[in-house]
Amino acid sequence: MLTIKNLSKTYADGTAALKGINLSLPTGMVGLLGPNGAGKSTLLRTLACIQSPDTGSIVFNGTNTLELPSALRDQLGYLPQYFGVYPNMSCFALLEYFAVLKGMTDKSSTRAQINELLELTNLKEVAKKKVTNFSGGMRQRFGIAQALLGNPNLIIMDEPTAGLDPAERDRLHDLLVTISKNKLVLLSTHIVEDIENLCHHVALINSGQIIEHGTVQSLITPLEGKVWLTNSSPGDKANILSKRYQYGRPYFRVHSDLAPDSTAKALAPTLQDRYFLELASKSVVEGEARHV
User: How far apart are CA 268 and CA 273, in angstroms?
Assistant: First the structure.
């Protein structure tokens, strides 16, 4: 459905934000997972035709979107990580304005869809209030509503759960799963749990490169029988996937072919384990390269 080939972007200050990205993404909920500064937002802005890459191609449903960006914008819903609003417009009026920008000309159907989206995002009771006075969570929900205007086929969301309370987050999860059945919903976040709960396919990105991608299960399977919980720090700290405390005592999730010690307990691997393993592996490789 979406094919990205050799996509690269270097900013004027020399920052190589994207380095030869190659991806084929299917219909459904797809996760883009990476740490801050990994290149997630740059990739999403490029996919949304907001900025141009230096090299590469993007094809969505058979259309080269870099050559015909209008063909994508007609079927795109985009929620950026940060967005501004017009200060003197109500929630409903601003959604009407965005609908016009998306080419929605039938006022009756537009208003019906806006009312539906206000209901879905729990904003119906504040529809007449100015968005500029909304709380962070309310403004985020408004951003989600505007992204869904026009029934888009490609929905790109950059950190959509930022600022949402647990109930709002659960409501958004239900909505995304429902609408992703016949669409491509690209969800970018650094919250591994959101990806693992919602997405059937995931791409891991770091330092402007895709370091691994595939179904969530295909990324987890290679770690089966190799993840352990121990309260003893392993001798090789490169094998530590994560560390947490319980009642003041440290516990380590460790990647190892064999039990690291006699008290270690085998654990079912998670996407977070694979994510941390890939980040640690890349850090080791980069460290070795700096010392060559």
Answer: 10
CA end-to-end distance (rounded Å), the chain: 41
Q: How far apart are CA 34 and CA 56, in angstroms?
A: 21
Is residue 255 located within the same domain as residue 164?
no
The distance of Cα 256 from the centroid of its chain, to the nearest Å, equals: 29
Amino acid at 6: N
Q: Backbone phi, then psi, for 249, in 5-degree steps? A: -100, 135
Domain tally, the chain: 2
Indicate the average pLDDT of the chain: 89
C-alpha separations of 33 from 38, 187, 196, 267 in Å:
9, 8, 10, 22
Structure confidence by residue, pLDDT tens digits, 209-226: 999 999 999 999 999 999
Q: Which H/E stretch holds residue 213?
A: strand 209-215
Q: pTM score, two decimals?
A: 0.85
Helical segments of 149-267, H only: 166-179, 192-198, 216-220
What is the domain range of residue 239? Answer: 220-290
pLDDT digits (tens, 9 = 90+) for 122-132: 899 999 999 99
